[in-house]
């Protein structure tokens, strides 16, 4: 069987920095090419500086390493995206179109594209939002993800390019600090708790959002990409989720380990973004088509996050 050669964009990001390691384990360190805008002195493996807007550089790397799969994680997230709407649209859509075109020309076998719950708008039902509900996003990030989902479907239907995608909820992991996401309060809160600090939350205490623990998110990507082509029935993007909770519920989970920990609520512009998203999504299509099944619930996640962050602190 042909050795897979993997290229990852956005390899320094929250998801990319963890996915690189998992793909190195799966395919071998020398068969994974990690790329991002800036080098990473701690990185172990093959790393190339890449701005995915640079089509020529992207294509040269795909040719140089004879890439067979691309995981395109480079993007500007929801909260940061609202600070620079046009730039966010440009970066999120032009980079993905570069990935699709380069993959087609160079006969890349599979492409992974992360979409998001941000594709839904405030008119969607809040609970168990259907896979096929109308998409009316209220952020530029969400608009760019809806466009990306349709580009993915277009390249599959018109050119047979095997593009696969997941609509991620908030992703929570211990491996990196919070980024520019609306759900990143759920990462920052753990850092504050283990350092003995109280937490100021930029969302309202009862703002329930769909979330997934990093380990489940990474496994979902691997299982989706490993699934036989005939199982992939949805060529825009699959809903997936692990759990749903509010900042207040997450605080209660943390207080089982840190009884004196407190959260104060100071909703800001991100509350309006969060309020336009579902509280939970229906991921039954992913479960039916390729046996998706989350393993981490809120207390499992809290126990693991606290253990790993304390271990990292000791290093
Ligand atoms: C964000 O908050 O912008 C992302 C997302 C839900 O896609 N984590």
Compact overview of the structure:
The chain is α/β, with parallel strands linked by helices. It contains eleven helices and twelve strands. The protein has helices at 16-27, 55-64, 78-83, 85-105, 140-159, 185-194, 214-226, 247-255, 269-275, 284-290, 298-314, and strands at residues 6-9, 32-36, 46-49, 69-72, 110-116, 162-168, 170-172, 199-201, 209-213, 238-239, 243-245, 263-265.
Structure keywords:
single chain, 315 residues, alpha/beta, Rossmann fold, UDP-galactose 4-epimerase, domain 1, 2 domains, seven-stranded parallel sheet, three-stranded mixed sheet, 12 strands, binds 2-amino-3-ketobutyric acid
CATH fold-level assignment of the largest domain: Rossmann fold
Q: Which compounds are bound in this model? A: 2-amino-3-ketobutyric acid
Number of helices: 11
Average pLDDT number: 97
Strand segment count:
12
Strand content: 15-25%
Helix-strand category: alpha/beta
Q: Residue ranges: pLDDT <50 for 5 or more in a row?
A: none
Helix content: 40-55%
Number of domains: 2
* Biggest pleated-sheet summary: 7 strands, parallel
Q: How far apart are the first and last residues' alpha carbons, in Å?
A: 40 Å
**Helix-strand string:** EHEEHEHHEHEEHEEHEEHEHHH
- What is the correct CATH architecture of the largest domain? 3-Layer(aba) Sandwich
Rounded to an integer in angstroms, the radius of gyration calculated over CA atoms is 19 Å
What topology, given as strand order, has the largest sheet? 3-2-1-4-5-6-10
So what's the overall shape? globular
The CATH fourth-level homologous superfamily of the largest domain: NAD(P)-binding Rossmann-like Domain
CATH C-level class of the largest domain is Alpha Beta
